[in-house]
């Protein structure tokens, strides 16, 4: 089976490799459009758009496309990737000393050996609790460069780990891909798993 990840995220590719899935990376170039304000629905919309975009460019059978999108929801606001260091500071400030949710939506499009298409999608939520941070810690972390390509302006697998008190849910979901559930969904969708 040809497996294609419709995301340029190196973290998602690494997570797939961690569970033994070697995926071809073809990032989606779709202009993202969101109609919902509910985090779980937003990530399903975005992951679906990415998977559709890439699947539409592929030919052949026995191919699986994985689309994924992650957002952070804090205090009723959806936090995407910061556009500037100042925005990263504001996001981190809003997360410090409180809890927030990380949602990852995953959309799978599978074209079987006969060319029939099957689809499934799911959203995973993880609660993240952050220790209080002083202003110096906020400015230092926001300025380290790590927050700039990450939803919510932090990477739990990086320096921000120093400020994470605990999580409730799937750690890998916070990194960007809930690979345990993804593996189970792939098995269900494709009728098994042959490495």
UniProtKB/TrEMBL annotation:
Its cofactor is a divalent metal cation. Keywords: Cytoplasm, Hydrolase, Nucleotide metabolism. It catalyses: UTP + H2O = UMP + diphosphate + H(+); dTTP + H2O = dTMP + diphosphate + H(+). It is an enzyme of class 3 (hydrolase). The active site is at residue 69. Its EC number is 3.6.1.9. The record marks 11, 70, 157 as: Important for substrate specificity. The keyword Cytoplasm applies. GO terms for cellular component: cytoplasm. It is found in: Cytoplasm. GO terms for molecular function: nucleoside triphosphate diphosphatase activity. InterPro entries: ITPase-like_fam, Maf-like. GO terms for biological process: nucleotide metabolic process. Its main location: cytoplasm. Coiled coil: none annotated. Pfam families: Maf. Belongs to the Maf family. YhdE subfamily. Nucleoside triphosphate pyrophosphatase that hydrolyzes dTTP and UTP. May have a dual role in cell division arrest and in preventing the incorporation of modified nucleotides into cellular nucleic acids. NCBIfam families: maf. This is dTTP/UTP pyrophosphatase.
């Amino acid at each position: 089976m040809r497996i294609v990840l419709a995301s340029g995220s190196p973290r998602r590719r690494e997570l797939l490799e961690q569970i033994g899935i070697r995926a071809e990376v073809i990032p989606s170039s779709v202009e993202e459009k969101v109609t919902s304000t509910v985090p779980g629905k937003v990530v399903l919309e975005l992951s679906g758009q990415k998977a559709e975009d890439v699947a539409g460019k592929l030919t052949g059978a026995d191919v699986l496309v994985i689309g994924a999108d992650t957002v952070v929801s804090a205090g009723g606001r959806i936090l995407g990737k910061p556009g500037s260091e100042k925005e990263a500071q504001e996001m981190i400030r809003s997360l410090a000393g409180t809890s927030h949710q990380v949602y990852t939506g995953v959309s799978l499009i599978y074209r079987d050996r006969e060319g029939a298409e099957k689809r499934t999608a799911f959203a995973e939520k993880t609660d993240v609790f952050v220790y209080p941070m002083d202003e110096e810690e906020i400015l230092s972390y926001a300025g380290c460069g790590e927050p700039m390509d990450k939803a919510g302006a932090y990477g739990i697998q990086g320096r921000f780990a120093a400020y994470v008190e605990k999580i409730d849910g799937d750690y890998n979901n916070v990194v960007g891909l809930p690979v345990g559930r993804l593996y189970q969904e792939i098995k269900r969708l494709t009728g098994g798993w042959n490495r």
